[in-house]
Amino acid sequence: MKVLNFGSLNIDYVYRVQHIVRQGETEPAGELQLYCGGKGLNQSIAMAKAGVTVYHAGCVGEDGQILIDALRDAGVKTQYIRRVPGPSGHTIIQVDDEGNNAIMLFGGANQKITEEYVDAVLNDFDDEDIIVLQNEISCLAYIIEKAADRGIHIVLNPSPYDKVIEEQIDVNLVSTLFMNEVEGEQISGDSDPLNMTQTTQMMYPDMEIILTMGKAGSYYRNGADPIWQKAYRVEAVDTTGAGDTFTGYFVAGICQGLSAKENLKRAAKASALAVTRYGAGPSIPALAEVEAFDPAAV
Ligand code: RIB
After folding, report:
1. Residue 225 Cα to ligand 1 middle (Å)
2. Can you tell me which atom of ligand 1 is nearest the CA of 41?
3. Does residue 33 sit in helix, strand or coil?
4. Domain total in the chain
5. pTM value surpassing 0.90
6. Nearest residue by C-alpha to atom 6 in ligand 1
7. Is residue 195 domain-resident?
């Protein structure tokens, strides 16, 4: 079984602010840091750190060597990544004193994925393999359609949720869906988390569903009764990338044959550790740290 993540790569410009800037307001930023991020890159790093071999496909621009290096340093296979003219994707992220964030995303090279490139990559994967996707790249609907044609197990994190997910994606082709409460409400029409998972399961009976709810924990549902996992209480400094850490660790756990319960617990520990550190990619913990993490000690 091979794991392919066809996903975004962003340079994150992270500004520390006392509070997230409101409309019409000017707020001085205390500090500026540059980190490697993008939901795709973060999830690939999390899977690699959890101990799974992962191939990353996606586009970077002329300034993108730093992104390729970050993936390589984490052990991710980068041979499918393409360099295209122009800038890489980047974000402007505000992180406030409580670790909350607000993100402005510029797609850059992430929006230059073509059907020809998708075909060339997918040619090397088949029905034994898994593909992991988020919604920060172009051609997402095409990737899903072609991956399904090849029988590849499709994992989708429909984030950020927009018209592409609503109007172009055939969600029936997805085998494993990671959603947060906002995405869950948009997909199911329900605002209560438990109902959200139930309705989504009724809409897509064969789908494995994972709902992440930040401090309220997470739910797993796959036909039977849902399993709930609490979020571990830690001193958060930056929540950016915590959801990606959870997703990457959980997908790795699927590949490693963990039970849903064990897998939720390990992913919750990994994302708890991630919020205690700054940045997205750099905040993702190694497996040994996750296994050594004792929630009772914090
Ligand atoms: O999920 C966090 C990520 O979202 C950041 O790294 C940023 O690049 C945005 O894509």
Report:
1. 32
2. 6
3. strand
4. 1
5. yes
6. 37
7. yes
